[in-house]
Amino acid sequence: MLSKPLPALTAETLERCGVSAALDVAGGLQVVSPLTGEIVASLATHSAKDAAGAIDTAARAFRAWRLVPAPRRGELVRLYAEELRKAKEELGRMVSIEAGKSPSEGLGEVQEMIDICDFAVGLSRQLYGLTIATERPGHRMMETWHPLGVVGIITAFNFPCAPWCWNAALALVCGDPVIWKPSEKTPLTALACQAVLERALARFGDAPEGLSQVLVGGPELGEALVDSPKVALISATGSTRMGRIVGPKVAARFGKCILELGGNNAGIVCPTADMDMALRAIAFGAMGTAGQRCTTMRRLFVHESAYDQLVPALRKAYASVTVGNPLETQALVGPLIDKAAFESMQAALREAVELGGTVHGGQREPVESEAAYYVKPALVEMPEQAGPVLRETFAPILYVMKYSDFDEVLEEHNAVGGGLSSSIFTTDLREMETFLSARGSDCGIANVNIGTSGAEIG
């Protein structure tokens, strides 16, 4: 059991991080913890006018920060890593409270922030450029990398802090101020990360005002960043639908864009696979974080010769998995983020049944609070890849299908719109190499004998 009520624990954790913002603003943005469905804070929000002011402040900071030597800029990031280490427990707890993650996942996300800071500090002394031969006698060409400008970072609820730091640590080393628009579902973690950064800034001593800012509020703030010609680069994490909106808008003003979007990630289990290892990897990859990772395994193709061995074992694993509040139990599966996520999951399962699918699990689990949405992960045996199988549903649903021909299953694997992460389970070297080759997986991440879930510090 928690040592104190969740709102009180939230306030205490934020105070330890150094957050000074009022948490009980009347009519403010209500922050709801998916663990219990309780409102843990009510925050003042920023307006589009506030966003414009933040952009102007960041632009002024850029004019000073770009002139600071890169190794000196790296010193700020090194100090931030030190402060993150000191505040790791509190920041990890905020991730659990706001995103519903287990304590180990919350701490792991903060560790990813520390790791990328360490990496960025090294890069601060490696901003090399090439010297290039030219046809002109007595001349040479030199490549020099200059700071870009203000960087806008838009993040999603499921990883409320690490993706910001992946971008911010590198941007700060490269001479670029950052403005962070976190998900309105997880703004408290952002405020905590900013407060910890301000400790590093105080130790650093001579950083310009507005080097890092946080905007709390709705989509209009992200739109202000995306539309502003003063924001040189937008890095946005979210759905493919969001990416289709952001990408063209930034391109229309000739800005730069980094999009980390969803993925309808698949695994292939071949006849020679180590079935015990595959079972463990698939179970975690599909059920971990309640299926709310961009790299969650959502589709599984099993060779017909292995189907009757693997799938019954998967059904058993799904039936026995523990679901519950990760701050109070050792449950593997925590809550969905909100009611909308639950309804989206149920709609996908109904559609799967209409297309001939057999659903194992997927029901809502009874908990004390009606406002919290805990579900049993769903294993869905499908006759073919159709309907909801072709779309990403941000919930713990794994669609399982048989295959017989390796070349055909590669085509099925690649026949969806979102290609982010992928896995193959096999001990056949030819299948491994084919999967990793140009005619294999079309995903940016291709794994062999491990699940799809996760990415090395971004």
Automatic annotation (TrEMBL):
PROSITE patterns: ALDEHYDE_DEHYDR_GLU (PS00687)
EC code(s) of this entry: 1.2.1.3
Membrane-spanning intervals of the chain: none
Domain Aldehyde dehydrogenase: 29-454
Residues forming the catalytic site: 260
Gene Ontology MF annotations: aldehyde dehydrogenase (NAD+) activity
Signal peptide region: none
Subunit structure and binding partners: Homotetramer.
Name of the featured protein: aldehyde dehydrogenase (NAD(+))
